[in-house]
Amino acid sequence: MKEALRKFGLEYCELPDMLSNVSTMLRMLTLNVDSRNKTPILPIFKILMVIMSIDYIYVYVISGVWFIFWHCIRTGELGPAMIAFSLMSTSAVAFIKLLYMIFYEAKFKSLIDRYMACDSLTVKGSRFSKNLTKALRDVKKRGIVYWLVLNMNAVLYVLRPMVTPGKHLTVDTFIIIGLDPMFKSPNYELAVLMVMVGVFFICFTVANVNCFFIMITGYTESQMLALAEEMTHIWDDANEYYQTMMKELSMYGSVYLDHKDFNRIKETEVLNSHVTEHLIDIIQRHAFNVSLLEEIEDVMRGPNAVGFLFLIVGLVGELLGGLNNTILQLPFTLSQIGTDCFLGQKIMDANIKFEQAVYACKWENFNQVNKKIVLVMLQNSQKTMTLTAGGMATLSFSYFMNIIRSTYSVYTTLRSNI
């Protein structure tokens, strides 16, 4: 048990370990994205998934729709309606993505198999492997922090009404169908239990689903950073390779070493041959990673578009509902939007670093063939790798700030007109 838990730590940060970690967590949600794991999902997880899904749908979807479009319209209460609307919108994103991933499980298994195939090309112990592992360690740290923050947010959200004097719920003004009045026994106890189950289910789902994407997009980012290091050292590596080869030849007293003109020509040929070999390897790896990112974009285009729309609308609802009422909902929403934008920015930054490395690879020393290869690589690297919100916008820090500004503008406009 202790050894199994250790594998979730930073000591195990290579791709197979990270995918095994996130696959284990997703299996608790009855989703298996790892084709290597042939073990059937335990029936207890399937039963819990059904119970928690029914609880979530009843509390935050059915009751939410009834509360907003029937109860609040009848009573004229706008604030409680906005709070319930924001809860319904922001919580639905993870549930939609999870159902989508379960429905298209085969696609995600195929995607993971391609990532594993890409990782199998890495030579253990090489500089590329070491740089890749170093970058992946940061990626896993990113995933661990995100998972802990999301689930801690759930704990605080549930505990807040419990430590407040008197009888309270996470949202005092919200009513679950069939439990009105909410603050009389046994309705109160049932409401607390149902809300608690729904909150932990959604936060656990968000944390695991998003950690999955943190890991796979982080692997592409790490590959690009490691490839950038390879490009930076490619000419020095060629010279080192030549010097090593010459030392080995000198041990055998090669007659060719006495012929200076031949030796000079041989050096040029050997250096450029070594460079060509490594340039081809790098360009193939780069193309592989571009295709993997495009596949992620293609597979998640629909859910990402719907998800961002729900999150942005939910964010406006949280502001209209009053920050004093939604102070713990806001971090939940912003963490989802911010994480996606952060991942997109990191991919772009890694691509830019690779582009700079291509230009700084001392290509002026190469022969004409290798210069042409570098030119093609430079043109390809200038087509920046990006993640998008379902094709609607490029995810980045600037887009995150645009969302904040636009959301606040919509909020102030609606606030002044309501």
Automatic annotation (TrEMBL):
Q: List, alphabetically, the GO terms of the cellular component aspect.
A: plasma membrane
Record gene name: LOC118271932
Highest rank taxon of the organism:
Eukaryota
Q: Which residues cross the membrane?
A: 44-69, 81-104, 144-163, 190-216, 305-323
Q: What keywords are assigned to this protein?
A: Cell membrane, Membrane, Olfaction, Receptor, Sensory transduction, Transducer, Transmembrane, Transmembrane helix
Instruction: Give the main localization category.
Output: membrane
Membrane-related topology note: Multi-pass membrane protein
Question: Entry's Pfam families?
Answer: 7tm_6
One annotated GO molecular function is: odorant binding
Q: Which family would the database say this protein is a member of? A: Belongs to the insect chemoreceptor superfamily. Heteromeric odorant receptor channel (TC 1.A.69) family.
Task: Give the protein's recorded name.
Answer: Odorant receptor
Subcellular location(s): the record lists: Cell membrane
Q: Which GO terms describe its biological process?
A: signal transduction
